[in-house]
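User: Structure tokens for this complex, please. No commentary.
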Amino acid sequence: MNERTIICLSCPKGCRVKVKANGDDIKDISGHECPQGIEYAKNEYLNPTRILPTTVRVKNGQIALVPVKTASPIPKEKIGEAMQKLSEIEVEAPVELGQVIVNNILDTGVDVVATRSIKEKN
Amino acid sequence: MSDKIYDILIVGGGVVGTAIARELSKYNLSIALFEKETDVASGTSKANSGIIHAGYNASKNTLKGRLNIKSNPMFDQIADDLKVPFNRIGSLVVGHSQEDKEKLILEKERSLAQADIDLRIIEKKELREKEPDLAEDAIVALYAPNAGIISPYKLTIAQAENAANNGVDIYLETEVKKVFHENNYITGIKTNKGKFSGSIVINAAGLYADKIAATVGENYEIVPRKGEYNLFDKKYGSLVNHVIFPMPSEKSKGILITPTVDGNLLLGPNSYVVENKDDLEVTEQGLNEIWDGGKKLYPSLPGNGIISSFAGLRATIPAEPYNDDFKIEALDNPVGFIDVAGIQSPGLSSAPGIAELITKIVDDISKDLKVPIKLQEKSSYNPELDKLPRLDDYKDHREDWHQVYQEDNDYGEIVCRCEHVTKGELIAELKKSLAPLTLDAIKRRTRAGGGRCQGGFCGPRIAEIIAEEFEISPLEVTKNGPGSEILMERVKDIKADRDITYRRQKDEN
Amino acid sequence: MKTKRELVIVGGGPAGLAAALEAHKNGVEDILLIERDEYLGGILQQCIHNGFGLDYFNEELTGPEYAERFIDELSDKKIDVQLKTMVIDINDQKMLTVLSSKKGIEFIEAKSVILAMGCRERTREAIRIPGTRPAGVMTAGAAQRYINIEGYLPGREIVILGSGDIGLIMARRLALEGADVKGVFEIMSYSSGLVRNKVQCLDDFGIPLYLQQTVTKIHGQKRVEAVDIAEVDDNFNQIPETKKTIECDTLLLSVGLIPENELSQQANISLDDITGGPIVDQSRETDIPGVFACGNVLQVHDLVDNVSEEAEIAGKAAAEFLLNETKDEIKQSLEIAPGKNITYVVPHTLNINANTSPLIELFFRVKDPAEDCKISIKDNQEELASYTRPIVEPGEIESVKLPIKLINISSDEIIVELITGGE
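Assistant:
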């Protein structure tokens, strides 16, 4: 049996929710003060995901980097790999907010998009 | 050997070395000055009280006393020529009791017996008029109207620039390792950047003067005595109007409080001997000590007004026969070696007098050197520096800044928002022959990065401007010389661990 | 060189942007927005992380996205924007001196001014860390700018002092970019950052958070080589036996923010010692009529959403000031003061006239964390209202909406208190 404490982020209270499980088979959830805690802990235990906000190099841009993010959350364990992939990319200015920088990163089905418009260097 | 050949080699780019260089640049001599750091004014000259003492407690029996008294009146001309802000705001030694008052009267009489200094005893009423926020229990003071404040590093930098304009070669990041002498004559020096020939070596190496002197067989010890300071936000600059001293102790003039020429307030220094000559650590104990000292004089001193803390080291020779006096003398053996050592307080106040004295000493030994020289004034000597425009000087007539701006639009772009320094001002400094490549050097010249945010906002921008101007990578820009780079690498050049986000879970399992 | 303007807004960050839009919406036709950087958006542009906009837009945005929504909206309106322009002086007559590389010195006579200069970070000096003064000590915000805008890493082995949100966010940013973050040290017994940031910025990356510990000394001549750390007791006294040395090349400081009120002081505007910002009434008007303040220059917010909302109050009020020729007579003036367990309250005063909205929102911070507690609002005579809260933390601004009709007509003071369990 595996036991892990997960801090619920559904509200600022931050309940420490205990999850007991055998592999992926959750046996018990406790410590939550509202039902949101169960849902949160379940997801966080089985399939933790995060939005990854970072930057990508820009060529000829007004600034050196364009901020980007994954358009929706990606599995947490892929974040390191995604960072490596993004460090190898360089995009050409101008960049528009929302522009897709990487299609379907690491086969997650999620695009990486620009979060700021970058003009060309004058 | 392809040595560069000079008449005079000056070791040390502090206020003393640069004052000497400037003074000697009046004559037809070839002179070089060597500074081991990236900028002049990198040692004691950058971290001291910045006070031109009136000389009230200087004894005529000491060299430092005589030089202080002699030098004080010289500063108006120097500041005027070099465009260095200098302000005779006067000093007050504050007493709290009848006993203090008697001591101050005695001090006044003793001083007047030695020299003609303007000194007055002032009573509580006048004291309060001069300093309304001074502690209630301050009842009497010894007032010296001729004491002044100056920026010690701006003075040093200006002296160096002026010396350079008048033909002195200034070698930065050049450390003197050894002084050569043959058959009782000085012949040159060895540095990390090669050898240089010369018949006179002037040892103004500050804390390290003993190391330089040891290479010609001298045996004395420079003992570093630390002083710690707090600098306050300009907001509080008007809290104090004069240089305020407590009653002096045996060893020092005590923890003083003074406005600076830039409009800040400076508190310090304490005074204690340290072991290492690079020990510039600010200690909690020391900060508490100066804080207590300041609070005694000004109970309303604002703790949250401190924008910077720093420490400086005084280069002292406590041992016999110098007994904490200056050691300024030419050696008989080898001929051509001149010590300017143990220049502790009032070294800044004495610098012009020291430079004159050295000139006299150089003249005295000029015929006896390995390669004799003759001091001949040169017509091309120009004692003045051009005044560069500073937005801060246009506070009461901003409209006139528009003309400055029209000549160069860079004077319209503020880089340092706390101190109101424009890009034009920065670039003007960077274009000088003695160009500062470091953030600290820029800060000392323009105050950019020296304000309340301490470079939090403008640091990146200043680094960028330096990099652009010198066509280097921002990665090469330093705080104060090699080893103090601000940035480490471009982002994306180092890669994070693929599994970064799972470290903790792995640990748990 | 001399011009006249109806409304000048100082600062083009989130506060200035929202204030400009709101003033425009309410009929002000002559608006000048002055920004010192080369783009609008202020500090949001370097806050590339997500977590913005949940309150204001009901969706999660990054800083630049949040900023761009306002910038876009501004672009087709008649609002003049001057970038790379700095207000260098302002006086109590609303005369501004500004400087720019495009136009040089200009004097602007404004009928109304909105101060939206934001805040700056406390530095090493403000907390007096002893030791040497090497390269490698910087505020978290400066590091953020280097990493996210300029594209440079300031160090490889990092210690962070202060667990405010910027410190936590930077811990993740540095870890993502390959630096080794050795830990975040917090002198208080709790983190002042959002719980979410603690989990997603530290826990996710295995970065330890050490509470009741602080940096006691900085080592290194040219570059930071190490820092000393010690535990502190409940009175913040260091416990010498706990001292340890941690090798690192960079110390990042996230030790608080200070509203940037140098201009306000030039104009002789009264400031609140606690917030560091101007003293304002419910319309965010300072004690100089026609001068308003909003955003972090007024009080340091933890959410940009609240900044936008506050700026809208100021923008609307500036419009009323400019367009409403006949000023409504003030019927009742009250001081609003922090009571038990409360650090400060904004606004500081309440001036009730015929037009005052029926609900007044009070923003405040509690002194210590508490659970299952109650916010009590009193005037000189009685408790007017109380609001229960499951949890309150000093790191998060609290607010309550007080119906004005509850206030007794003869009162001249409102007090906000936090009542904790058992009281």
